[in-house]
Specification:
alpha+beta; Helix Hairpins; SH3 type barrels; Alpha-Beta Plaits; three-stranded antiparallel sheet; 51% helix; elongated
Length: 276
Amino acid sequence: MKEEIQQIQVVYNVLVEFFVNYSFQIVGALIIFAIGFYVANKTSKFVGKICERNKVDVTLTTFIVGFTKILIIVMVSIICLGKLGISITPMIALIGAASLGAGMAFQGLLSNYAAGFTIILARPFVVGDTIQINEVSGLVKEITLSMTILEDEDQVEITVPNKKIVGEIYYNSKANKLVEGCVGVEYGADPAKAIGVIETTIQNIPEVGDNPKPQIGIDEFGDSSINLGYRFWAPTTRYFETKYKVNLAIFQALQKEGISIPFPQREVRLLPEEKD
């Protein structure tokens, strides 16, 4: 019993000595950290407002705001550790060794982060653009350091790792997507008139954009028809809806103008039998 009391007394004396010697340093470090955290929040919000005022892209704004806040907190933490008399040199060496091991273990993940950093800084595309990468396309919904999230017309989210984007060939058509179609008219019809009907019909569809202007012309001369091709831009999130609406409108407009759409025909001739 006497030994236990002595051990408790020793612990008590150590605690009292610690708080007597380091109480001011601990309180000072806590005050510095609290002030630094407050300054980090205020500074990051101020930076965010500046970015919004200058119409900086939302993805780049989020990155700058977060980086600013983290940078200030790290600097304040280093000051607090120095206030407590803790040397950060061994910690830096330990962090470096740990970073090397983590880099070997998470090489793929770090590649995504490095690629995301490149995308955010270079800004080859932004939220709201339509991109196509390796036969995957959609409207850019969100860009993070590790991945880019696309959304198609069916509201299906497509997650693309950033390392699959950087270094690849991709197409950026902003908020719209190209629609291509073809319709055949009989050889006896006036192709100029048919082209005018198609052009007027497409331009009367509200969803079709006029920049760039829709293109209509003779695509090829088929066996049974003159094939007229048409190209126009439609909102990515309403691609198929607009395409189907335009196709129906073109069919109805051609019928109204008396321009028929032929179908393949074959002529079969029976040759008379040869007499012996």
